[in-house]
Amino acid sequence: MAAVLAIFLAMAIIVYLLKPHQMTLTFLRCLVVATVTLLLDQASKWLALSNLQMGVPEQVLPFLNWLLLFNPGAAFSFLAQSSGWQRWFFTFLGLFACIYIVFILRKHQEDRLLCLALSLILGGALGNILDRLMYGAVVDFIDVHYANWHWPAFNIADSAICIGAVLIIFGELHKSFGKSPQSH
Q1: Which terminal residue of the chain, N or C, has fewer Cβ atoms less than 10 Å from its own Cβ?
Q2: Is it the case that residue 17 has pLDDT exceeding 70?
């Protein structure tokens, strides 16, 4: 709980440091989306930590299990077997990414789809940063599988980041293909 308050404090400092003329309703909506994403992620992880046993799958659907795991690495357990330096590397990388996202959000407030996408990514990144600070690893608990093939376990934050990335790609493709060809 203290870590969640620390994240809120960090977001409040970011908001405070912005000049009043940069605080638009669109930007505030972005912060709300990021905060709701963060809260959903942390609440779901709290439920997983409270109700699941480490490494013991609980079937939800024929293709879906709840499976509590800790991932000290990045996506797909990249660098998970390293000696521990990756915890701080990914924490600081995530923090720098979050700061950069806030600046992009301020700059591109007219692009609603981009703002939604970046807000989801921001909330997801903050959720995983918080896990690294509290547990030394990211809490994963969603296990999608088919027969004996399992997708790497993930969480709500990972899902928000992926949805945000897909929305960015969709928006850029729509901009590229939505323009009429120039006549010469």
Answers
A1: C
A2: no
